[in-house]
Amino acid sequence: MLVPTDVINMKLKKFMKNGIPIHVPERIDDPILNTLTTYNAEIRGLYNYYRLATDVSKKVDRFKHYHYTSLLKTIARKEQISIKQVLNKYGVSVERRLGTGTRKILGVTYETAEGTKTRTYFNEPLCKIDIPYSGKEKNGVVGITYLPRYQILDRYNANKCELCGYASNKQDEFEIHHIRKLKDIKQKYSKRGKVMPEWVLKMVAINRKTLVVCKKCHRKIHQGKMTKSLKIN
């Protein structure tokens, strides 16, 4: 199994032009933590979907180079500063995988009920994973168990908003909304009389931490305007 080169090239269209990484204009107005979360969902979803592929390290690493630089440029454009200044402001030191010492990677510090936390750009090794073995064989063929996380790219490739139903053959019209834990968002709206937005209801209904949405719905989610919902009694 190999990662299709045309898939990588298609997904890079949003993040590069004439071979150079570019910022994403529609993400400039989003809070930086939300922007980082969106980029992380994209790179993680791509890797999880193709991590059984022999050349996943090479192909996804190429995507990651342009993708990460696009993130830096988007934040730089938002704050009207240089990429170097972005890393000086938001850089988090992480250990190098090869050699010794540390390097800086973009990260955002935020407050939660458990205290201060920091989220960095996707920093997991892009290595090939062996095929999961289900423990069953039939006629000499090994059974394979695929986990639900492999479905995110199938949903994204459907080119349809999971909230409003908008469909288009242009994949760059869709984005992935991602939350860290479904149970946390459910607890947030569990208080009596608390309004649960439509996008939360959808996540609960499909039992997923991700939603594939059109740009219009994604903006409404981050602006708190996706309010068509019901109250929890």
TrEMBL record:
Pfam families: AI2M-like_HNH, Intron_maturas2. This is Uncharacterized protein. InterPro entries: AI2M-like_HNH, Domain_X, HNH_nuc. It comes from the Bacteria. GO terms for cellular component: cytoplasm. It comes from Fusobacterium ulcerans 12-1B. Residues 161-218 form the AI2M/AI1M-like HNH endonuclease domain. One of its GO terms (biological process) is mRNA processing. Residues 3-103 form the Domain X domain.
